[in-house]
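Hello forum,

I keep getting stuck at the same step: I have a sequence, I want structure tokens, and every attempt I make locally crashes halfway through. Rather than fight my setup again tonight, could one of you with a working pipeline run this one for me? It's a single chain of 148 residues.
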Amino acid sequence: MTAEEFTLPEAEIVTSLGLARALVREVRGADLIRGQDWQHVQGTVRYSTAGRDRLLARLNVVLTKKKSEGADASVHPLAPEPGDHRELICEKKPRNRRIVFARLGDALVRVRVKDSTRILPGMTLRCAFVQADLWELAQPLPRSRGRW
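Reply #2:
Ran it on my machine without issues. Output:
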């Protein structure tokens, strides 16, 4: 296949589905064939149409048409819209105090916080969806370490 056939950037697919990029990368490495389904083109991962269809089938994603545009759009039934709120479980805290990692289903996502010093792994966080694998804390910080 030629580079012209790989026209769909992975970043656009991930953003439109609202999935974690790590999950898409894992599926790409395990189930898709380089050179047939995907290729590195000018420093980015790009998919062929057949590769995108295989990726979506592996992730159980359904393609539907938007009513307003009439064009193909990737819509996952559980994909959050920007501003949607969900309860996430804090998993770990990196050295960066403005980020914590939380579990959303099987995926590990980033959550932006004002300061993570009073947040402990195992705490339930009410978060608002921002983009792809990024969420934002949508409640006040805990009053004391590990306690709401």
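Residues 3-75 form a domain with the Multidrug-efflux Transporter Regulator; Chain: A; Domain 2 fold (CATH 1.10.1660). If your local run keeps crashing, start a new thread with the error log.
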